[in-house]
Write a structure and sequence with these properties.
This protein is α/β, with parallel strands linked by helices. The protein contains twelve helices and ten strands. Strands 1, 2, 3, 4, 5, 6, 7, 8, 9 and 10 form a ten-stranded mixed β-sheet that branches. Helix 8 packs antiparallel against helix 9. InterPro entries: Glyco_trans_2-like, Nucleotide-diphossugar_trans.
Length: 329
C-alpha cells in the first residue's frame, strides 16, 4: 500500500547551468509536471557567459521551490558538488540542463520510495537529438536489489549504466561522494561508489528522462587530450573492482575495452599532424598491447572487439572508418 509521506520526503534536484539559455526553462518546467510537490530545484550557474544566469534568477522569482546560485566556472562536477552541499532534501537527483524529465517521472520515483524505501532508484531513458528520433532504453523491474546485483546491472544494462541523471539517491548515500572536478566521464566512479554502499536498489521499468545528445558537447567532438579521461576513469573503476568485487573483473575489463575503442575512434579521425594525436596514439598503442594480453579468455568481450583493437594498432584511420560503420551502432 502506498502511504502519503509528502511531508517527510523531500526531493532536491541539482541542475548545473552553463550557457544553456535555449534549454534551461524546458528542463525546469519538466520537474513540475507531477503531483508530488515537495521538491527543491537548485540551479547552479557555473559562470555562464550567456543569459543563463539571468534566466536562473527569473525562474527563482517565479517559484519558492527554485533556488539560484552563482559560482565561478568549475565544470559540471564542481557545480554538482556545490549543489549537493546546498541541498536540504533527503532524496537527491541530478538533471543536466539540456535534458528533461518525462511526464510523471517524479511521481513514479516517489511512489516507489514510499513503498520500498530503497537507497537508490533507477529508471529508463530516451536519448537522441529529439524525442521523435530518440532511442528508448528501459530494463525489467527489479525491487530490492543488493549492491552486488545492482553493480552487475550497472555493467550489463544500457538502460541503467553509470549515469547520474537516471537515478535518485538517498542523501545519506550520495551526500558524501564527490564528483571528480575537471574531468570528463565524471559519473562512472562516483556512481559506482554510491552503489557499493547501497543496501537496496530498485530498478523501475518506465522511461523517466530524455537525454539530449548534444553534438556540440566535447564528448562528441574530435579528439583532444581531455577525452582520454574516458579511459582513465574506466581504469580507476577497474582498480576498485579488483579490490571490492573481483567476480566482476571481466565486466570491468570489458568496459575498459569500450573506452579504448571509442577514444581510439576519435584519435583515428584526428589530423595526423596533430601533436596530441601522435602522442596519445602512441600511448594508447602501448596500453592496448598489454590489454590484449590481459583479456585473453575474457568471454565478456566479443571477438569482434578484440579484432578491432588489433586493427587499431595496425591502422587507426581504417579502424575509425570501420568503428563508425559497425561497432558504434
Amino acid at each position: 500500500m502506498k502511504v502519503s509521506l509528502e511531508n517527510k520526503v523531500k526531493l532536491s534536484i541539482v541542475i548545473p547551468v552553463y550557457n544553456v539559455e535555449t534549454t534551461l526553462e524546458r528542463a525546469v518546467k519538466s520537474l513540475f509536471d507531477n503531483k508530488f510537490g515537495n521538491i527543491e530545484v537548485l540551479l547552479i550557474d557555473d559562470g555562464s557567459t550567456d543569459n543563463s544566469g539571468q534566466i536562473c534568477e527569473s525562474l527563482s522569482k517565479k517559484s519558492e521551490k527554485i533556488y539560484c546560485y552563482h559560482k565561478k566556472n568549475g565544470g559540471l562536477s564542481s557545480a554538482r558538488n556545490y549543489g549537493l552541499k546546498k541541498a536540504t532534501g533527503n532524496l537527491i537527483a541530478f538533471l543536466d540542463s539540456d535534458d528533461y524529465y518525462l511526464p510523471g517521472c517524479i511521481d513514479a520515483v516517489i511512489n516507489d520510495f514510499q513503498e520500498h524505501k530503497p537507497d537508490i532508484i533507477c529508471f529508463g531513458l530516451k536519448k537522441g537529438k529529439t524525442e521523435e528520433d530518440s532511442v528508448s532504453l528501459s530494463h525489467e523491474e527489479y525491487i530490492g536489489c543488493s549492491n552486488i546485483e545492482a553493480i552487475k546491472l550497472l555493467f550489463k544494462s544500457k538502460a541503467i549504466d553509470f549515469y547520474a541523471w537516471n537515478k535518485v539517491f538517498k542523501k545519506e548515500i550520495i551526500g558524501n561522494i564527490e564528483f571528480p572536478e575537471g574531468k570528463l566521464y565524471e559519473d562512472m566512479v562516483p556512481i559506482y561508489n554510491a552503489f557499493k554502499i547501497a543496501k537496496s536498489v530498485d530498478v523501475l521499468n518506465f522511461l523517466g528522462i530524455f537525454y539530449f545528445q548534444n553534438i556540440n558537447s566535447i564528448v562528441y567532438q574530435n579528439f583532444n587530450p581531455k577525452q582520454y579521461d574516458n579511459i582513465i576513469q574506466r581504469e580507476i573503476l577497474l582498480e576498485n573492482i579488483k579490490v571490492d568485487f573481483p567476480e566482476f573483473l571481466d565486466l570491468a575489463m570489458s568496459r575498459l575495452v569500450d573506452g579504448y575503442l571509442s577514444t581510439g575512434f576519435k584519435i583515428g579521425l584526428s589530423n595526423k599532424e596533430n601533436t596530441d594525436q601522435k602522442k596519445y596514439y602512441e600511448i594508447s598503442k602501448l596500453e592496448i598491447k598489454k590489454l590484449l594480453i590481459d583479456i585473453r579468455g575474457n568471454n565478456e568481450i566479443p571477438i569482434t572487439k578484440k579484432i578491432a583493437l588489433h586493427l587499431y594498432l595496425i591502422n587507426s584511420s581504417l579502424y575509425s572508418i570501420l568503428y563508425k560503420q559497425i561497432l558504434r551502432k
